[in-house]
Amino acid sequence: MFNQQNYGISEESHMSQTGKLEVVSKQTTKVIAVCAKLEWKIDQFEKLMKLFKNGQSLVSKQFSCPQAPNIIWELHIYPNGKREEDVGNVSFFLRQTGLRNDDPLMTEFQIYALAGGNSRVSVCRDTKDFVSQQGRGKFQVSREKMMPSIKIDGSLDLVCEVEYLPPDSKIIVEESTSKRFDRCEFVNSPMYNVFDNVRKMYESELFTDCVIIVGNKEFKAHKCILGQHSEVFRSMLNQGDMTEGKDGIVYINDANYESFRALLNFIYTGSTSGIEDFADDVLMVADKYAVLPLKEHCEQLLAKNINVRNVTRLLTFADTHSAIALKQHCIIYIAHRYKEILESCDWKELKKGNSELANEVLEKVLNLRSSPNSSFSESFDRFSSLKSNYDEDSPGSIPYYGQVTFIRETPFGSPGTPYDNEIQPASFERERSFPIARIFFDDDDADRREPSGNPLPKRRRF
């Protein structure tokens, strides 16, 4: 049997998979580059671009790096171009003036402007070799492209960074003295991202086994993923006596292409980006196919935009699609702005077309405004510090809270200070929020009952 100790082999030696003895010599090469940096503020640069003659230049003061003081740099700027063909452009030149020999110095440099908020606007970036007294890098930037870099007062904040290896710098190669690594780091190693892999599988249509047809367009999908995220899809695709289960073809006749694509995108990636403008359409699709996390997110988006003009429409919409959190936000908003809303044409239409809903809301508004032990107005005053614009176009707007409930003896503010029947901020997360049924009932069984005005199936309880 081969014995490392008997043969005097160090820890740096090991047997390869092919049975060969490998001895690794670990070495480190140390290279130190230096950087010279110029920060240059030019007043009234916007005027200089118009008033300077073609060929007239600005020259910065010389700058260098303490580690290489014999290498000196200058930046030349021609606000109206250097040559006649450059008129209307800004010309930039970098010049090296320190070295006295003709050996070129390889340099990497970049020039950029600092715009508002110190954001960088790149002018140029390049790698060139410089000899003494030579200007390199004639970069032309049009006036139009320079304008975003000009500050309000017309000035320009310019930065030039020059990185290079000094001619006398030494490149040192050292042997590693340690027999083992002190630590192991993975730099820029790609993370195994499940969502990203599922997204790629969806986009590439890899191993798809069902087709969803919306209008004259189709999506290819995977039954297992649809069924995992939607009880409705699971039921449709799992029953052999249904067309969807037999053929794997699902026809969608009551949704548009964009909203259904948003639903599939959420199912496969968890992303909700870009749905703000049609969150109501997405909510309807998510409600029909029981994708509740997406539905709740749409409720949140819609609740953030409640105002006097749309609250009645959103109330009706929320009641139709069992969007409890959105409906409750509408009720609280109506209670706060009831004079304007109850006199609106939309409210009058609601009373004619859906008197049951109108009466339900009025009853809850009355209860809110007459809640005992703490006045309704004081409750909103306490929330004024949270400052979330619910209705930016009119005064007295209320903040956005997520799902709102009334809970007896719930501390408000500092712990240990109970307030009865206070309005409490809560999350849209079902498992962390208090039962919304308590806002409708005063008995001890409230947390085990559904709101009488809008019952939901047991599987959809908040």
Notes on the protein architecture:
Pfam families: BTB (PF00651), MATH_2 (PF22486). Residues 35-162 form the MATH domain. Residues 442-462 are annotated as: Disordered. It is a single chain. The chain has helices at 4-7, 45-51, 143-146, 194-203, 223-229, 231-238, 243-247, 257-269, 279-288, 292-303, 311-320, 324-336, 338-342, 345-353, 355-369, 376-383, and strands at residues 13-15, 21-23, 27-30, 34-42, 58-59, 63-65, 68-78, 89-96, 105-114, 120-130, 134-142, 156-164, 172-175, 210-214, 217-221, 249-252, 405-407, 410-411, 418-419, 422-424. With 462 residues, it is α+β, with helices and mostly antiparallel strands. It has 3 domains: 34-164, Sandwich (Apoptosis, Tumor Necrosis Factor Receptor Associated Protein 2, Chain A); 192-303, Potassium Channel Kv1.1, Chain A (2-Layer Sandwich); 306-462, Alpha Horseshoe (Serine Threonine Protein Phosphatase 5, Tetratricopeptide repeat). Strands 5, 6, 7, 8 and 11 form a 5-stranded antiparallel sheet that branches. Helix 12 (324-336) packs across helix 15 (355-369). Mean pLDDT is 73; it is low at 1-13, 178-191 and 378-462.
